[in-house]
Amino acid sequence: MNLNLHQIIKEWTDNQSFDDKIITLFNKVRDIPYGDIGSRNPLDVIKNNKGTCSGKHELLKAIYKELGFEVKDFIIIHKFNDLPVRFPENIRAILDKNQIVDPHNFFKIKRNDNWFVVDVTWDSNLEKLGFPVNKNWDGVSDMNISVALGGEIYETVKPLELKRDLIAKLPTEVQKDRTLFLKELTKWLDFERTKAEV
Predict the structure, then answer these.
(1) Is the dihedral of CA 52, 58, 63, 64 positive or negative?
(2) What is the pTM of this model?
(3) Cβ contact 110:69 at 8 Å
(4) Which pLDDT score is estimated for 197?
(5) Could you report the average pLDDT of every consecutive run of 10 residues in the chain (198 residues)?
(6) Rounded CA gap, 111 and 91, in Å?
C-alpha cells in the first residue's frame, strides 16, 4: 500500500479553496492522536491513526509538498520534564528520575515569500490535559513550537536520520528512560481517550 497524497488531500479538503485546504490539512494531521507506534513512516501514521511529532510532521510535510510548498526541516532539543502537563504519578516518577531529553521535529513552509513555523504535534483533545496545542491557525503566520524552548535548534535535510543520531548520542540510561516515558505516555493518553473521549 502506498501513501496516496492526492487521495488524502481530496478526501480531507474536497471543494475547499486553496487557503482553506492549508488550514484543514493542518487540523486533520494535528488531530491524529499523539502516541508512539514504533514508526515515523507517514503511511504507518495514517494506518494506525496515531503518531509522534516525527511521523505526524513527515505526513503533513509530504502533503504540503504535494500542494507545491517549499519546506525546511528543523529539530530542537527539549526536555519532556518542562512540559506544562499534569502527568500521572508513574510518568512523573520517570521524569523525576532523569531529564528526558528529546529531539523534537517541526518544519517551516514558504508562503508569499515568507517562511513560517508549522508544529502539528499535540492533538487538540490534549489541551484538557495541559498540552500546548496549536489551535485557530490562520494559515499565514508562525505557530508555536509545541515544546519548551531553550535547547539547540538544527536545520536539516534529513530530519529522521539526525533525530536517530541525536538520540543515539544520549547517555544509555537517558535513552532507556526516554523509551519508557514515551511508552507510558502513549498508554496514559490512550487510557484518557477511552475514559473521557479526550
Answers:
(1) positive
(2) 0.92
(3) yes
(4) 56
(5) 84 94 97 93 94 95 95 96 94 94 95 95 93 94 92 92 95 94 95 73
(6) 40
**End-to-end CA distance of the chain, in Å?**
30
Query: Which residues sit opposite 34 in a β-bridge?
Result: 51
The per-residue pLDDT for 153 is 94
**What is residue 198's predicted lDDT score, i.e. its pLDDT?**
47
User: Alpha-carbon distance 169 to 198, whole Å?
Assistant: 35
Question: Is 77 in contact with 129 (CB distance < 8 Å)?
Answer: no
CA–CA distance, 182 with 7 (Å, rounded to integer): 31
- For residue 30, the surrounding DSSP H or E stretch is helix 18-30
Task: Pick the closest to residue 126 from 35, 18, 19 (CA basis).
Answer: 35
Region of 57 please: left (phi>0), alpha (psi -120 to 50) or beta.
Answer: alpha
Q: Rounded to whole angstroms, how far apart are CA atoms 158 and 7? A: 26
Q: For residues 42 and 25, give the distance between their C-alpha atoms in angstroms, rounded to a whole number.
A: 14
The H or E element that residue 44 is part of is helix 42-48
CA distance 14 to 2: 21
- What the chain holds in terms of domains, given with CATH numbers, is 5-196 (3.10.620)
Comparing C-alpha atoms, which of 54, 72, 73, 69 is closest to residue 5? 69
| 24 burial level (CB within 10 Å; 0-12, 13-18, 19+) | middle
